[in-house]
Each structure stands twice: as C-alpha cells, then as structure tokens.
Sequence to fold (272 residues):
Amino acid sequence: MRHPEQKTLLAGEESAATPAIESAGGKSDGPAVILRGLHKSFDSQIVLDGIDLTVEDGETLAVLGRSGTGKSVLLKLIIGLQKPDSGSICIHGQEITLLHLDAMNEIRKKMGFLFQQAALYDSLTVEQNVAFPLKRHTKMTKSERGDRVKELLASVGMEGDLKKMPSDLSGGMQKRVGLARALALDPGILLLDEPTAGLDPITSGEIDELILKLQAEHDMASIVVTHDLHSAKTIADRLALLHEGKVQIEGSFKELEKSDNEFVAEFLKRDS
Ligand SMILES: Nc1ncnc2c1ncn2[C@@H]1O[C@H](COP(=O)(O)OP(=O)(O)OP(=O)(O)O)[C@@H](O)[C@H]1O
Ligand SMILES: [Mg+2]
Fold:
C-alpha cells in the first residue's frame, strides 16, 4: 500500500505528516510502527544515532544499508530483544521501550520475526518449529495446531516437508519455514531480516514473490531489512537507507533515484 502523502525525507527534515505519538497504553491504534530519536550504542560504538521512521498498516518498508550499519539491531529493538539507550518505539499506539517482560511478550505476539539466519530450532522438525509459537501462545488443541501448521506450510510451499529436520533443508527452504513460523500467530506486523541473503537469484525471486503473496493475503505492516536492492524494489512501498547511524533518505525507489545526496547515489549505483 502506498501513501501518496509520504514524501522523500532527508535526514534532519521534519515530516508535516508525522502523527502524534500516543502515550504508553494509549487506546488509539495509530500507525503500526513509529520510531522517534532511537539511539543505540555498544560500549563506545554508536550504532543508531537518532532513527525516525514510521510504517503504516499494510505498508512495506525496506531498510537498506551496508553491513554493520545496525539494520539487525534496529529490528531487535522493535521486537524488544534489545533496549534502546534513548528514543521512542510505538507499536500501534503503544510505547514499548519501558514495558516489562510480560507486557512486551503480549506485544510480541502481534509481531512475526524472521531472523537473519532463519534461526530454526535444530532439534525440532519443520512441523514442530512452526507449531512452537502456537503451542506457547495459544490454547489450540493438538489437532487444531496440526491443521494450522499444515495450512501455514502450504502457504509457503513446504507442505511436503513436515517431518524434515532443519539441517536437511536448503537455505531457501529454511527461510520459507522461518516465514511460516513468523506468520503462525497471524501478526499485524512482520519483521524480516535479510529474507533473501545467501540465496541464488532465482530462489531470491521466489522468496520475494512469496513475501508479496503473503503481504496481500495478510495485510500486514512489514519491515524488511536487506542489502538486496532488487528485492527491496520488488517488495517494498518505501525504502529507507541507513548510514552512520541515521536514515540518510527515505522514499520510493524513484524518489531515491532522483536524490542528489552523494551517498545515496553511490549506494544505488553499486547495488543496481
Ligand atoms: N549485542 C551486541 N553487542 C555488541 N555489539 C553489537 C551487538 N549487536 C550488534 N552489535 C554491533 O552493532 C553493529 C551493527 O550490527 P548489525 O548486526 O545490526 O548490523 P547489520 O546492519 O545487520 O549488518 P549485516 O548487513 O551484516 O547483517 C555491528 O558493529 C555489531 O558488531
Ligand atoms: Mg544484519
């Protein structure tokens, strides 16, 4: 879903369309994700140095940047696996940075997360991996879970591999199973960390198609971290380019192409 009012913003510019941030526990829904002034350092290393981003319901934002720019850290902050040093993270109107574990776990159920390395449980079968969040977070019976797992695996084209172990799967298959697991609780927000990294161009294209299909079926807000510009162009409504801890620019691919920002031009040239 594209939002015509969203324009290209260079770092430091204010968006006139920036919605107000709701206080913690606010009832109003608001955009799926609002990040304001996010800072994160590890010892003396500044990784994120004031990140502002908004993702609306039904919209897909691709976050691009060179290796080590903090893309995975950004997703981990949103899912609450790491805490920011300062700044605000609002999920559907709720500020999450100060939440305790129980409350954060509730919010996490609204979010599906595909880790950079797919992160399947090695000792569990494909079926058990996808059933895991259902077992943990729902009151489904075993047979209901079985049906749901089959449905999820069918949606990613893996229905024939229920009994396989993760080590018996190719990289692309592992990503598919990771996607099925991320979708298990029917999340409103999907966070994908490098869904096509390490895959050949044809398999990457298949994963992109799959992501587009799943987005259409589930109407989620998605944040896709990638350094695959082709993939970003295919699956995202908007792109945000991270560099030196900041969002250098955000907008549609066409808008980024028009930018006279030197770093942006260089990035697009190298990756196209
Ligand atoms: N828990 C941690 N402790 C210390 N440093 C960390 C930690 N997590 C991440 N970092 C550092 O933060 C920086 C950003 O890491 P991050 O994994 O977010 O990069 P990235 O943009 O995802 O890179 P890539 O494209 O290679 O996946 C790196 O220098 C990394 O070493
Ligand atoms: Mg990463």
